[in-house]
Amino acid sequence: MSRPMEEDTNGKTEEEEFNTGPLSVLMMSVKNNTQVLINCRNNRKLLGRVRAFDRHCNMVLENVREMWTEVPKTGKGKKKALPVNRDRFISKMFLREEIPSLTMSLKSSLAEMGERGRGIPKICRCGEAVVMNTSKTVKNPGRLFHSCPFGRDGDWYHTFKWTDVSMYEELEDLIDKVDNLEGASITLQKGVNTCEAEIETLTMETRVCEAVVEKEIREFKIQLRSLKNMVVFALVMLFFFKFMY
């Protein structure tokens, strides 16, 4: 009797891992055909689409871009070379969890990192932070630009954007925001004016109602006074006839 209950519990636990646990990112990637960024133990990164996986993080990936940084070797006595960013494209890849150099630590999906947009970029599509540099080329000497460590001018994938273009877009967006605020302010002012007009109308109607009520009260007082006089006259006549007869 206990074995079916254990199997049912294990099934629910595995389902929770795929739907709400860390594996849910892989599940969403398979369902929505989105990309995921995977950090390797050897400081390499893989950006690709997950086609299949299991609970042990064995994965079948497609359209994979592998990215890494390496330092070129130099001879003795020579100055140490600067790190160079490299990448390569792999159409299909199978990752095995038991291979130490390829044991993955899932970082985040591409949808959570954001796409290229207007203004100054912050994060590249590959997950790297965008930094500002100065161009040293003959064509654009001293021109500032924001780029991913893997990016370059004309790269369709990694972020590369001239800073003056980004600033121009920032100013355009700021002007649009100011225009929107001015439009909202005008609309709000119109609403305030409408409310003030309605208040004035209600005030006039209140004054008219007060005047009508005051008139009716005066007429009621006059009628009450006339009725009082008639009652007094009737009492006087009653006493008069009583004493006379």
Automatic annotation (TrEMBL):
Keyword Zinc-finger carried by entry: yes
Record carries keyword Glycoprotein: no
GO molecular function, one term: RNA binding
Record keywords, A-Z: Cytoplasm, Metal-binding, mRNA processing, mRNA splicing, Nucleus, Ribonucleoprotein, Zinc, Zinc-finger
Pfam families: LSM, Zn_ribbon_GRF
Residue stretches making up the GRF-type domain: 124-166
Compartments reported by the entry: Cytoplasm, Cytosol; Nucleus
Domain of life: Eukaryota
Organism annotation: Brassica oleracea var. oleracea
SMART domains for the chain: Sm
GO biological process: mRNA processing; RNA splicing
Family classification: Belongs to the snRNP core protein family.
Protein name: Small nuclear ribonucleoprotein Sm D2
Domain Sm: 23-109
